[in-house]
From TrEMBL:
<protein>
    <recommendedName>
        <fullName>MIT domain-containing protein</fullName>
    </recommendedName>
</protein>
<feature type="domain" description="MIT">
    <location>
        <begin position="5"/>
        <end position="59"/>
    </location>
</feature>
<dbReference type="Pfam" id="PF04212">
    <property type="entry name" value="MIT"/>
</dbReference>
<dbReference type="InterPro" id="IPR007330">
    <property type="entry name" value="MIT_dom"/>
</dbReference>
<dbReference type="InterPro" id="IPR036181">
    <property type="entry name" value="MIT_dom_sf"/>
</dbReference>
Length: 82
């Protein structure tokens, strides 16, 4: 998977989250994180590879935070993406 495809998955997750489809958004974030990790293989620049790894970790954390919030019964507002 390349960077463009991975970012499409991130955009899909964001759209689901904006519609209040939080479980779907969390699933999409996990898929996007995996896709970003895969995109590392298609990049030749070590700097770009490192940036993709960091972004994959951030996206995976968004998914984890969203799933935790769902498991807690959705107390308060949804967690923020940082």
């Amino acid at each position: 998977m390349n960077y463009g495809e991975a970012m499409t998955l991130v955009e899909t997750a964001v759209a689901a989250e904006e519609r209040g489809q939080y479980e779907r958004a969390a699933q999409e974030y996990f898929m996007a994180a995996s896709a970003l990790q895969s995109a590392v293989q298609s990049e030749s620049s070590p700097k770009i590879q490192q940036l993709l790894v960091v972004k994959a970790q951030q996206v995976e954390q968004w998914a984890t935070n969203l799933f935790a919030w769902l498991a807690e019964g959705q107390p308060g507002a949804p967690p923020l993406r940082m």
